[in-house]
Amino acid sequence: MINKYKRLFHREEEESHFWPSFTDLLTSVLLCFILIFLIMMVIKSFQIEEMKRTIDQIMGVRVHLINDLNDEFDDSPLSIEIDEETGALIFNTDVLFEFDAAVLKPEAFEFLDEFVPAYLDVLLESGYEEHISEIIIEGHADRNGSYLYNLELSQQRAFSVAEYILSEEFPYKNVQEHLKAKLTVNGRSFTEGRTDEDGNYSNQASRRVEFKFRLKDEEILEKTRELLGE
After folding, report:
1. Side by side, which strands form the sheet with 81-82?
2. 4-15: per-residue pLDDT in tens?
3. ∠ CA 88-78-139 to the nearest 5 degrees?
4. Distance between CA atoms of residues 171 and 98, nearest Å
5. Dihedral of CA 148/149/153/156: which sign?
6. CA distance 122 to 131
């Protein structure tokens, strides 16, 4: 009987030693998780700061590039409008095409011979080339006619411009190889119409060609900035 109680007491003593040890183990594991979490938070903080610096650098390139384009074309007789937000250079298609046509007018060649080298001098020869992923020629039409008709017209107009500046007739051959690596041609139909000074839709202003640029990883960086709350 005495031996029975001794065994019972010994078992209870072993269990009393077991539970504190298990509790200590749980505490150690929890502390490890807390330590890992804190380390990850510190690393994440450094990553966010680095990401912000990268975003600011890329966005700074855009600002400087738009400023340089403004300096280049501010006093130009070519009647070119610069979008201060995107850096797109906009000119009315009447400079290049007859109404409802996609064949370049004779005077269009002189315009492009003057405009394109000046534009590319800024984008490709001012230290920006490494940041540029695309140079885009984009055609836009007015609302006369169907969407598909104007889609084809706007694409053909943009293609006519690209075809000339990449042709043997274009006098500035030194920029053509750069263009081939980066050039994209788009047609937008009448999806992005423009208004006049009174805010009314304008057929004439909507008929246009735009030269645009896209910075490397621009869309990802914009999305990242939104996620960071910038």
Report:
1. 81-82, 89-92, 208-215, 132-140, 183-187
2. 544 544 555 555
3. 40
4. 24
5. positive
6. 12
Task: For residue range 164-223, list pLDDT tens digits in order.
Answer: 999 999 999 888 888 888 999 999 999 999 998 888 999 988 999 999 998 876 555 565
Question: Cβ(226)–Cβ(178) under 8 Å?
Answer: no
Q: How far apart, in Å, do the first and last CA atoms of the chain sit? A: 78
Handedness of CA 219, 180, 75, 98 (dihedral sign): negative
Structural domains present in the chain: 60-227 (3.30.1330.60)
Question: What is this structure's pTM?
Answer: 0.69
Q: How many C-beta atoms surround the C-beta of residue 37 within 10 A?
A: 10
Note the pLDDT tens digit of each residue in 132-164.
889 999 999 999 999 999 999 999 999 999 999
